[in-house]
Write a structure and sequence with these properties.
By secondary structure, the chain is mostly helical. The protein has helices spanning 5-23, 67-73, 107-123, 128-147, 151-166, 175-190, 196-202, 207-221, 234-240, 245-260, 269-283, 290-297, 301-315; strands spanning 34-36, 42-44, 50-52. Strand 2 (42-44) and strand 3 (50-52) form a beta hairpin.
Length: 318
């Protein structure tokens, strides 16, 4: 079967262009190192002389001057995300009940769209595993919003939960417990300071179950998470207490000095950070009561008093 004439013409043009590129030499420096750059121009690689311009703009026909404008004009869809059970690849039927021109739909069309939405929700999950994943990822998104953590933490938590589901670590445990443990592990992995008490406050399962599930999945998945650094809690606690940068710097110094003397071993990082902030506020004449600091850090006043005495002695102020 004979190939179409247009295809033969394209092949001849391609061969002619390649021959021209191979045989051309630069009239300026007589070099034969002729290349085609990103703008589809024939350029001498030695002296930079442009031998042939092919004025074909292969970019979009629109212009954008900032990121938001570029995003609004782009015709591609949203990127793939791990926070949705189908990774965001499916489409959804909007609830606005309007057509492409913004006109309201008739009652018959609205009824039809309602039935289509209902069936679309039903067929998005094909089995119990996908329904499990859909519910767990929605729980992770809800808790992450309540904790105010960035989107990167939600992505990591979703990946951890998917790994646990694939390795059958969910069996015998609640979906809420594993999803909460995955979110806590993601916070630890991304260096976002959230204590187990804070995570338990936004969860629907007890703190004891969260801790037990977290230890299990971190061991089975080999997450190898480092211990929490108390200094990560200092900026957030100090901001809630409206303390200055000087107090934050002093609290960090107290934590460093006392940790070098081994006082951090076996201690709660939130309690250690709270005591350091309380001590720094006294030293910098921005006094806060133990009750105020304890409420922000979600620890007891007894914990602050005990850690405070140890840190003051370590700093040599006793």
């Amino acid at each position: 079967m004979e190939r179409p004439s247009r295809q033969r013409q394209q092949e001849r043009n391609t061969e002619r262009e390649s021959d021209e590129t191979e045989t051309l030499s630069c009239p300026e420096c007589e070099s034969e190192e002729i290349v085609t750059d990103a703008d589809q121009e024939l350029v001498c690689e030695d002296c930079g002389l442009v031998l042939d311009e092919r004025n074909i703009d292969r970019g979009p026909e629109w212009r954008a001057f900032n990121h938001s404008e570029r995003q609004s004009k782009s015709r591609v869809g949203a990127p793939i995300t791990e926070t949705m059970h189908d990774k965001g690849l499916t489409t959804t039927i909007d609830w606005k009940d309007k057509d492409a021109y913004g006109r309201s739909l008739s009652s018959e069309k609205r009824s039809q769209m309602h039935r289509l939405r209902k069936w679309q929700e039903r067929i998005r999950t094909k089995d119990a595993g996908e329904r499990n994943l859909q519910f767990a990822l929605s729980e992770i998104d809800r808790m992450a919003s309540a904790l105010g953590v960035p989107r990167s933490v939600r992505e990591v938590a979703s990946v951890i939960y998917r790994r646990a589901l694939n390795e059958d670590l969910i069996r015998g445990r609640s979906i809420e417990g594993v999803s909460t443990a995955a979110l806590y592990a993601a916070c630890r992995q991304e260096g976002i300071p959230r204590s187990l008490d804070e995570v338990a406050d936004v969860s629907r399962v007890p703190q004891k179950e969260i801790g037990r599930t977290y230890r299990y999945i971190s061991q089975e998945l080999g997450l190898e998470l480092k211990p929490v650094d108390p200094k990560q809690f200092v900026p957030r606690f100090a901001s809630s207490l409206e303390l200055s940068e000087e107090v934050q710097s002093k609290a960090t110094e107290i934590i460093d000095v006392s940790a070098e003397q081994g006082l951090l071993s076996g201690k709660s990082p939130t309690g250690f950070a709270a005591a350091a902030i309380y001590a720094a506020s006294l030293l910098c004449n921005e006094k806060k009561t133990q009750r105020e600091v304890a409420d922000v850090a979600q620890v007891t006043e007894v914990t602050i008093r005990n850690r405070y005495q140890e840190q003051i002695e370590a700093m040599g102020f006793r």
